[in-house]
Amino acid sequence: MIPLSVPEISGNEWKYIKDCLDTNWVSSAGKYVDTFEQKFSEYLNVNHAVATVNGTAALHLALKVLEIQPEDEIIVPSMTFIASVNPIIYVGAKPVFVDVCRDSYVMDVNKIEQLITEKTKAIMPVHLYGNCVDMEALLNIAQKYNLYVIEDATEALGTEYKINNKWVKAGTIGDIGYFSFNGNKLITTGGGGMLVTNSEKIKQKAKQLSTQAKLIKDNSGMYHEEIGYNFRLPNILAAMGVAQLEQIEEFLKIKRSNAKHYSELLNGIKGITLPKEDKKVRNCSWLYSPLIEEDFPVSRDKLIQILKYNNIQSRPFFSPIHLMQPYQAYRHGDMKVTLELSSLGINLPSSVGLKYEDIQKIVGIIKEIC
Q: Per-residue DSSP letters for 289-329?
């Protein structure tokens, strides 16, 4: 089986994890948590990073730190994994769904303003499949209406965006960014996440809330002035993250090279639209995601079945969240592009360990259909 996206364990993972086991520092404190946060913030060139147990917890934490209240509205795309939306409900707020762009698959910034009301408190751009929202235009809207910007960069670690003639990392442009280290991501800790920000105040509040809002008061032990959360990343998982982060540049090089190979081999096939990269974006190429148009000989779903028969794992684009039972009652704009992409898009195998011969095999099967 050629998998869709699996971890690459080829560095110091065993060494650092063994160090945790040898020293008994396996739980929610230890040197690797601090090291992971420091190295991660250095890589992104952002002031602060707070490690969490997963990406969903990082978003939940972001919403609490920004004091998002019940009935507040958050503008978010419907074309995303549901973990981008569920934490909005956790804090009692309401998602408002916006359409996406056909060429980049990410939030259509031109459709945001028509959805803003007096209840709108934040915009959440999701950098889907490694692409990047037009953050310069989005920041202008956020500033105009005094809105927070929370970047979902869970699929875009290493993606860069050019703003003010400077390349910056996705996830560092808004008030808060957050990342996931699930097993299918560019780097993994097995499970884990990270909240990043340039604000010292946000960092301090996030750190406190993520550790049960614990305070030390007058040498009387632990004291809690508010409700906190157990969102801490265990040291043993952070150790794996440190080892993975050491290899990130090589991982990115391979991912981008494989995306280039796919585009070269698939170019010119009628009925396949290749993923595009805006001149202001350097995509990390987390997943290679073309569109199987209606004039291709078989449907997208049929192609997935054919690939599976040949021991190749693939996946359709995310289903629109605004159509799912828990979210049908929430407000949204015209979702024409979202509906179209959800029926046409396919994610092809994109692991760091993917070989050129694997890509040739995958493309060869697709060409046999034509």
A: --EE-TTSSS-HHHHHHHHHHTTB--EEPPPPGGGSGGGTT
Ordered structural domains, the chain, with CATH:
13-245 (3.40.640.10), 248-369 (3.90.1150.10)
Read off the pLDDT of residues 43-81 as tens digits, 9 standing for 90 and up: 999 999 999 999 999 999 999 999 999 999 999 999 999
The answer to whether the predicted template modeling score (pTM) of the entire model surpasses 0.85 is yes
Residues in the chain: 370
What pLDDT score was predicted for residue 220? 63
pLDDT value, residue 214: 84
CA distance 63 to 150: 9
Burial pattern 316-341, b for ≥16 Cβ within 10 A else e, equals bbbbbbbeeeebeebebbebebbbbb
Count other C-beta atoms under 10 Å from residue 343's C-beta. Answer: 16
CA-angle at 53, arms to 49 and 54, nearest 5°: 85
CB 266 within 8 A of CB 366: yes
Q: What is the dihedral of CA 76, 79, 82, 83, to 10 degrees?
A: -60
Token representation of residue 122: 């934040």
Nearest to 336 by CA among 147, 100, 154: 100
Q: Is the pLDDT of residue 168 over 80?
A: yes
